[in-house]
Write the C-alpha cells for this entry.
Amino acid sequence: MSEDLLFTLSFVVIGALLIIMTMTGVFIARLPLSAAMLYLAVGVGIGPAGLGLVTLDPLRDAGLLERLTEIAVLISLFTAGLKLNMPFSDRRWRIPVQLATVSMVLTVAAVAALLAAGWRAPDRRRRRARTARRDAADNVAGLT
C-alpha cells in the first residue's frame, strides 16, 4: 500500500471513528465500557492483529508514535479536567497546585542548570548515521 494512500486512509478511519463515537454517545454511555476501551478495540481491529491496515515499526516510526502518545495523554488529561466539579477556590486544590508548582520550578531550574553547564540534547541525525554505519558493517560482515 502506498504511503499517500495509507496517510489518506488513516484520516478517513480516524474521522469516521470520531463521527461514529459522537453520534452514538448516548448509547455508548449506557454500556459498561468506556470510550477508551472502544477506541482500543478499534485499534486492535485495524492493527496487525486484526485487518492489518496499520502496521507501525516502533523503531522506524518512533517520532510518530511519540507524537500520538503525547496527543493521547493531552486528550485524557483534558477530559479528566472537564469532569472535575470543583471550583478553583476550593481548599482541596491547595496541595495539587503546590506540588505542581514546586515540580515545575525544579524541572525548569534543572534544565536551565544543565544548559548553562553546556549540556545539549543528542542530535538524532548523528545517531541515525551511527546506526546506518553499524548496519552497513553488519551487512558486510554477514551478521544480518
